[in-house]
Here is the input.
Amino acid sequence: MSFPSSKQVTGTAAILGGTGDLGMHISRIFLTEYREHFPTVRITIREPSIPKAQELAKLGAELYKTSDSFDEVLSGVDVVVNALPTSIPEEAKKQLLAAIARANPEVYFLSEFGADWRLNEFDGYEHSEWRRKRVILANTEAALQGTQTKRILLFNGNFAGWFFIPALGIDIEKNIYSPLGPGSLRIAVTAEDDIARSIARLAILSLDPTTASTVPTYVRITGQNVSYEEIRDTVARVKGVPKGEIKTYDLDEYKKNLQAKPSTFIMDYVRVLTGERKVDWTDDNANELVNPGQSLWRWKTVEDFLRNSQ
Ligand SMILES: NC(=O)c1ccc[n+]([C@@H]2O[C@H](COP(=O)([O-])OP(=O)(O)OC[C@H]3O[C@@H](n4cnc5c(N)ncnc54)[C@H](OP(=O)(O)O)[C@@H]3O)[C@@H](O)[C@H]2O)c1
Here is the structure.
């Protein structure tokens, strides 16, 4: 690693699960827009011959088989981005943490990339994804105790690809918007490429000794904090349809029903968090840290997502 100034900071990055839903975006962005900072990008993959892996290899990625020892892929790395599902086998999680402790990278991004679950209030019926994330964080802290590795939990709200979902109360096909409260409720949503750019920027800031201390452990970023009314208006404008209906539901009643009959679909819980204003990060985010004044990229908006899917 070398770091004369942030502009010239360079390091070796390993992206675990780099061909996944989010991982593919992280891999492409590191290998293209941020390549000068990360000349070596290693990616773990179960089957290196699949087309996604080959696409990344053509961009210059070094491919490692997930079944091989994590020590090999992590040897000498500065940045580790974990984009694996939280449901991988417990033994693999254990081996990974032990290997990270041995490799002692400068920075490790846990596989987070969603809601800030520290705010959750689902006592006794929290979705299993967040229960796993709590355990993974505790195990990570235990395994990396005493190392220099900076841990980062990046919260980005919803992925753009997981946003127009009736379970969230956003049904653009039927043109009906159903918040658990007023239509002015806002929800954080970030395009996957912008999440990837934020990871790259946080990695660079962490590698640069002049800025490393400005990077917190818990980081919220948000491409847009958009209200149900704004989504409705944007859909009308982009699709040329009449403004849809805002159908308000009762938050307490919905939450009681969820407690009585817990759902396996995490979006049913995110809808509650939205009703409780826990995923409106308008006034509390690190956008300025990763992308000051949008000088590095323009955050994509719901209007952009809708126009691109036309
Ligand atoms: N905020 C949101 O809206 C949102 C939405 C989705 C996910 N997330 C979060 O983003 C993170 C990444 O999720 P994702 O959906 O991007 O992951 P994913 O696509 O389900 O998986 C990533 C990659 O992990 C590898 N993989 C899967 N199962 C594995 C196993 N058992 N052992 C080893 N490798 C395995 C696969 O790669 P190969 O098959 O190529 O080896 C897969 O492409 C998670 O923490 C998740 O909670 C957030």
About this structure: The radius of gyration is 20 Å.
